[in-house]
Amino acid sequence: MSLEKAISFGVFDEFTWIRCEGKGSFLQSPALKECAEKRRSKGENRFVIDLEECTGMDSTFMGLLAGLASRVSKEDGEVMIASPGEKNLRSLEGLGLDFLLSISPKDASWIGKEDEIRKELKPFSPNHMPDAKDRAQHVLDSHRTLASTSDDNAKRFATVLQVLETDVKNQSEKGS
């Protein structure tokens, strides 16, 4: 699966559906972020993130989901997770993100229509592929978001944040 085809999306009456295929990682999450932000710029604030074909998620990807959920909740929006599978569900719950995200909500308007929706999705092609500096900043921002979600996560990611802050500083100095 090429990175360019890893994200597909569709806009429906009540939500934007974004499907992630392959590993949800620091490589794929900038495209997911760009897709969601383009939809948000059009006034959309209800998202379904489809993880049916997502083979796993790293902390950067989960931090991006947490950040998106946090931003849209301030606009009376919501991020729902469709078909997370057991592994991804454990990952989200392990970081306490089940309190920010609506995971497989039983009363969602799309329940039972997943296959029909998936047939309507189009590939998302990002306009911008991040360079090393942008990628480092994206990873840092995602981890800051994760650390801000709970005291446990703040402790869990403290050392990681220090390393990432150093990396961003080094990337900035290279670019100067």
Give a verbal description of the structure.
This protein is an alpha/beta fold. 48% of the residues lie in helices and 18% in strands. The strands form two sheets. The protein has a six-stranded mixed sheet. Strands 3-5 form a two-stranded parallel ribbon. Helix 1 packs parallel to helix 2. The longest helix is centred in the last third of the chain and has 18 residues. The mean pLDDT is 93.
Instruction: Give the helix proportion (percent range).
Output: 40-55%
Give the helices and strands as they follow along the chain: EEEHEEHEHEHEHHH
Oligomer: single chain
Strand content: 15-25%
Mean pLDDT, as a whole number? 93
